[in-house]
Amino acid sequence: MAFRKHLTGVSASAVALALAGGLPTVASAQTTQPATPDILEEGQPVAEEEEDNSVIVVSGFRESLATAVAEKRGSDQILESVTAEDIGKLPDDSIGESIARLPGVTSQRLNGRANVIAIRGLGPDFSQTLLNGREQTSTGDNRAVEFDQYPSEVVNQVVVYKSPTASLVGQGLVGTIDVRTIRPLEASESILAIGAKGSYADLGALNAGSKEFGYRVNATFVDQFADDTVGLALSAAYTDEPYQLQEFNAWGYAGNGEPGSPIVIGGNKSFVTSTQLKRFGVNGTFQWEANPNLMVTLDGFYSNFDDDQSKRGIELPLGFGAFGTTFDPSTATVVDGPFGGFAEAGTFENVEGVVRNDVFQRQADLYSGGLNLDYQGDDGWSAFLDFGYSRTDREELSIESYSGTGYGAGVGATDTIGFISNTQGTSFSPTLDYSDPDLIVLTDPLGWGGSRVQAGYYNNRIIEDELFQYRLGVGKEIDSFISGVNFGLAYTDRSKSLTPDEFFVSPAGGATEVAIPSGALLRSTDLGYLGLGPIVSYDVRELIADGTLVLDPNTSNDIPAKAYGITEKLMTAYLQFDIQQDIGGGEITGNFGVQAINTEQNSTGVAFTDVDGDGNQDRVDLSLGDNYWDVLPSANLSLRLDSGWVFRLAASRQIQRPQLDDLRVAISYGINNNQADSPTGLVPFISGGGGNPLLRPYRANAVDFNIEKYFAGGAGVVAAQVFYKDLVSYIDGSRVVFDYAAFPVPAGQTPATTIGFLDSEVNTGGGDFYGAELSATIPFDAFTEALDGFGVTGGVGYTKTKIENANGDIDQIPGYSKWVANGTLYYDLNGFSARGSVRYRSEFLADFTGFGGSPTRRLARDETIVDAQIGYEFQPGSALEGLSVYVQGQNLTNAPFVSQFNVPEPRAVIDYQEYGRRFLAGFTYKF
């Protein structure tokens, strides 16, 4: 039978149970009573639906919003949340997009997908993500979870905690994101739901072999057995979708703006990228109510992730004058700019282009699960025991392939190329036909390989990430102002390793160049959006497989220097006191406590120095680490008035652990005789550079204050938030005093001391950041019944930072946006729903992944994303009861992702990426 959903409420006792240290309680959309026309306040009697035909069932998007409002109101933490509108149906196409619509939260797009999250203007490295309350490994290089790894169809709710409690294990500096799946015993009936959707990318199939249409399918089963004491939930989802990208990318900009030396594009490396995302995810939950006091919950999640990209484009050496290219400024169109003259148009001569046919493939298997035993005694005692496991096995293969008009600079045919530069990048007018296979051959066109004929590069990065977590806790309810006390212990053991596997790609048989086999030629790739026209296209993997190109191992020290093995062992203890006190016209609730964490971190890898005196850097196996404590007090206090006002005050000490690859032990070092550089004044001494296995976390003292007003029977809320964080320890690239006692002594002069310096990421003095947020969920029927079904939800956040780096200069925090805003205008009534959404973030320092996986950060421009959706759910009594259909449009204004130099010159564009619009149509059906 079809299942009718009802408005969800979250009781204070449910939230208290979550804070007591067990797994967070999921406010299931199937657990609560129906609501009357004026949605009832907590504690009011509710008539049974069978006895009151006037009951209005709130469902769909409005129910999702009502659940979020109830979660916010019932919690003593400062939080935001989003709940599935229906089984297997978040309000957006992906988890990242749904989270990015929450107040004070935004995202960075990758290949058009919202895959990483920024909270309160700060990037993903400053927050933590949990799955059902447990820490997770990630498909990325560091701690930040990429939300691509979770199919949205298996997620029931996401909660973003902006303030911590002592019992919240695994908290982040600016927030903690908890992704939750269905709990079967919280569902009121058995459920079987299936869904499918098709997608269309309006840029078309840009690369040969790519697609413009894709699809998703999903199914969910939930049932209860043995008099509702045993529950089972199973969800599975499969995705096969294309994403297309047209990109302009500049090497940089030459010139200084002085007369005769205008600022001009230094080089072009632009690609057409086609991505095929294939992902299979399955989630299962088994619950057993062993007796009225004991609940056993077993979770399992698996995701297979395959992101296959074809990247085809052309690389042009231009304004830097490299490889024989010439440029005459006197023939260019030069205009005044903030930094002097800027060449908007002109001509480059003697240009030798490099045609690129690259591939990038990320394959990952993610395993996660856990067992939870939760005891709730009749005498006020409670206890829980929880085990969690997460593992990610990932391979990230990148192959570059080069072709051109001949081997080496100054050998092949050259091009005369006109250009026009503006705020959208640079367009070109070449004279050569780069799609002619008689002109373009496989070779090293610019001699990048030196004495080696390097026709490409093969880089496979093998990452293993594994995490075990054990938790136990005991709680006791008390009938006083201190309403409860909770004590818990947690032990987390995480290990992450990177093994690089890299090769040069060369023509077979020692040839300097070789023709592209006619059988390997594919449909040419059109770079007409840049004026470059078509280029020759092929799949480099096939040329390696058939022996046209061969692999030669790269044996330089640069390769093992990238490898690392990091282990972290965290022992956490917490003590938390809950507060509840009735007062005239309301009550005071909250908690206070302290969390103490002992960290034992260790890094294994290879360091480099000349040990035997032959003048060459020798590889030295090393293991180095640190052990330290963090003590994190926290308090959350809420004054709840019967009039619907809630005032919150939160204070805490917060930390965020450093990026894992910054902890690597790979250090190159040697003897330094410069007394002026010596930290002790003694010479000779040791100096070096590389990773820093002694790095400590970011640390901050934080205060938050919220004012919230609930109305419309609890379905509406207006909230104002202000926050301040005193960042007492920051991480920045600089020079630090370092003890090399654990390292082999370099050959040559014996150092006077093992105390030297290290150029690496180091802990520095911090600074502060502060801000304010205003958010609202307003159903318009609160003002007039004529607007029943209409409403708006959204928020705006402002954050200001002032961070001093190691040199005392003001630094920009990665991912920081001063302004973030979002809003959704909706209509949802009688099965019909329609909504339009806008989200905005101001400029920020964006993370890019360079070749070899090295992180690169550039200033990204502000962006505004517009999405829309319409749908219809067939009503009870209809022949199609249980069926919902919908159509979605994403990025309707085709907003680009743009980065530039960190200067106010809008024409100095580094990246200009267009993802196009995406359209989706689908259905869900509940039996």
UniProtKB/TrEMBL annotation:
CDD domains: ligand_gated_channel (cd01347). Residues 1-29 form the signal peptide. It is found in: Cell outer membrane. Residues 73-175 form the TonB-dependent receptor plug domain. InterPro entries: Beta-barrel_TonB, Beta-barrel_TonB_sf, Plug_dom, Plug_dom_sf, TonB_rcpt_bac. It holds the Pfam family TonB_dep_Rec_b-barrel. Gene3D superfamilies: TonB-dependent receptor, beta-barrel domain, TonB-dependent receptor, plug domain. Keywords: Cell outer membrane, Membrane, Receptor, Signal, TonB box. It comes from the Bacteria. Its main location: membrane. Residues 335-892 form the TonB-dependent receptor-like beta-barrel domain. Belongs to the TonB-dependent receptor family. This is TonB-dependent receptor. It comes from Qipengyuania gelatinilytica.
